[in-house]
């Protein structure tokens, strides 16, 4: 905004200009500010007397008569959080401020995005200059120190020597040495360093992209960006054209000064722009969409028709290949014998050609570092899906896929990675179990899956995830007289009824059962002693008919019973007459049974004496048990 008439006529002892506003110190030491007020640059101007002020982009700071500080305006980067103490010099950058205290030490505050506050040097300083991203100061011995952003060599290229004045721009700085000569360092995108004038200077001030100085003879010289219409021969004020990428819209404008003179026109004087790009001779815009990757070099000239010579700017534009993206989806796993394949999706390519190679890595190769167990290559014609041929593994486990795109002249190679989600398939390991031998029994598993039911020579199978620990348990059929004989095959051996296997391969296990002869584990006659009364024959017969046999069997069997005399003959006398065995048979279950005397045995007349009951069992396999006897007595 323009000053009103009264303010324009008011004398100032100091005047400073920021990005969109200005401030000055009146003759009485009070302040006046004008211009843009979008963030309060004019609202909170402090009262009192000031000796020095400095204006940043959107804030202002000043030193009061007592040496204390005051700042106002925008506080988005804490520009108003002033330090305490007494100051002699102050300099406001774009969004930060630094000052020299009365003891010569430094303090900085505000924006720290480029470390403007982190590396403030110690020591004693006479002068300070804050730029957009960095700050420089002159020490008491005349040497320089700079800190903050070093993106253009502002810190790494500080010159040596003794200086008495410094000016700091956005990305560059200039200083006057003790003998009055100039030196500049940092960014040179607008010729801030190329055209430093010779001669002796007494004062210097750096703007964002240019610097001006007062010579000893009182004349002013300026160099750097010519945006303020200084006039003169054309000079490129833009940076070199940047790199681009194939298939991506490109736009860069070359500019040349000085402003105020005839408008420059542009042309490609040597080499060629990348295919697909054009240079507008009036606006200087390089635009279009690159169609081929590679590095393209040449020169652009700027001509204004009045001031010469023409300006020349070289270019080297690298058009990068398209950054392709590759993802994969493996087919689902299942039981061993399932065919596997991989599907890859190629995207972000610029009409890609070449091929996609599919590598499958076998079980146990978690890092995909061994030789692939299967490899297939398929041609590429544009973005989209590409499928591998199928293959059928012969071993269970997890198979991991890696898909790799070869790339071409305009497209970068890309690939999936080992272990990517969706790029693996697991095949279960089959476990076959069979029973064998002369006996019968069943086999079950933990976890469930195997359940070979009771019977002879049963078989069953189940599939398990790779690496699953399986415990098999063999159980003879109860009451059959069978016993477990042992394991064989598939990693199982021995006669323990359990066997543990790890399902890391195809396994076949056999459990053998042996049919044992039946066993009579208990036999007795109840009552054990009979005392007949009345007619001996009738009583004896009734006693025999009322007797019972208690027997316990290990398995179902046909049991034959017979009775023989048990009393031996007298010493020296003849042996008792041989008894005539009488017998009967019964089919009895396993376990305990009570059987009455029956058949011919029940009709026999038992005379008073001792007897022996003999039992023998025969099972379904015609195996006979040992004979077992029980004694009983008939009392006369």
Description:
The protein has 636 residues and is mainly beta. The chain has five domains: 5-224, Regulator of chromosome condensation 1/beta-lactamase-inhibitor protein II (Methylamine Dehydrogenase, Chain H), CATH 2.130.10; 235-320, Immunoglobulins (Immunoglobulin-like, Sandwich); 330-422, Immunoglobulin-like (Sandwich), CATH 2.60.40; 428-515, Immunoglobulin-like (Sandwich), CATH 2.60.40; 520-634, Immunoglobulin-like (Sandwich), CATH 2.60.40.2550. 3% of the residues lie in helices and 47% in strands. The protein has three helices and 51 strands. Strands 29, 31, 32, 34, 35, 36, 39, 41 and 43 form a nine-stranded mixed beta sheet that branches. Strands 45-51-50-47-48 form a five-stranded mixed beta sheet. A hairpin with a 4-residue loop joins strand 8 (96-101) and strand 9. The longest helix has 11 residues, at 536-546. The model is unreliable at 1-8 and 536-540 (pLDDT under 50).
Q: What is the CATH-assigned architecture of the largest domain?
A: 7 Propeller
Helix content: under 10%
CATH class of the largest domain: Mainly Beta
On the 0-100 scale, what is the average pLDDT? 88
Question: What characterizes the major β-sheet?
Answer: 9 strands, mixed
- What gyration radius follows from the Cα positions, in whole Å? 54 Å
General form: elongated
